[in-house]
Amino acid sequence: MTETSPATISAPGAFVLRTWLWRVLFAVTLCVAAALAAGTLLAFAAEDHWRLELLSHFRAQYCWGLFLTTAIFAALRRWFFAAASLAAAIVNFALIVPLYVGLALPAGDPPRSRIMSLNVYFHNKDYERVLEAVARENPDVLLLLELTPDWARAVDGLRSDYPFAKVAARGDSSGMGLYSRLPIDTLQVYSLAESGLPTMVAELLAPSGRFALICIHTVSPIAPSNFRYRNRQLDDVAKLAADRAGPVMLIGDLNTTSWSPYFARLVEVSGLRDSRRGFGVEGTWPWLPLPLRIPIDHCLVSPTIAVYGRHVGDFVGSDHRPIVVDFAIEK
Q1: Contact at 8 Å (CB) between 182 and 141?
Q2: Considering the entire predicted model, what is its pTM?
């Protein structure tokens, strides 16, 4: 009797298993690509519904995910699906790439200042990590958002290094504190859009020149009423910035990204520009690894403010990461 080798017996089974695995991989990739492509297209209707506006914040994730599904489709030789996935990825890429194109800096080497903005998250109790981050970044101006009375007491030692300070601590997520080494000429606190949330407007004297600093934390748009409040805040702060004479910087947690039409309207009406130009996406929320973060913490500046450096800081126990901007006023 002729014996049949185990390899001969198992070969058909192995082929069936490989075929099944490739089909599962294709099906999963198709579902992922379809979801990412749907988000890509629905985000263009952001002004039609508050949930659709939330979809507009994930352009970077759509882009990276669709490039990945394109590669998988190509490996599976599913060329039609690869082409469709690539087309959707390019749509998102076209919206992201302007952030990597920098603006020309002025000639000379003016004295630079550094500002740091951080939403500390009012449930966070990691005070020491925040203080260590401040010491490491060594900003000339520091904005802390969601500053509670406990947080204000924990960081009160900053006043020795930042003699110009204005603290509006609250028991919820709406408090803020501005700490500055730069002299503050004037400071006013507004409540935009009748939201009850503080917005600080200060005139600061930097070594390179005088500028107005607008510090804001908008409502999180997690419900229709919050969505309307946030949009009114953005409209009001845009007009506030547009009405200021001289250089203006707007900084804080805007609870939106630069791919939202409401952010675009803020930039257009205010006349400010996004300081991320030339530095990339720079996601700040949540605290997760970079591919999973979206940029909702912003710094917008007048054309007469040159941005020499910008980066996202380390994890400090908050659900946000800090942003740090090096700048100078152009003469």
Answers
A1: yes
A2: 0.90
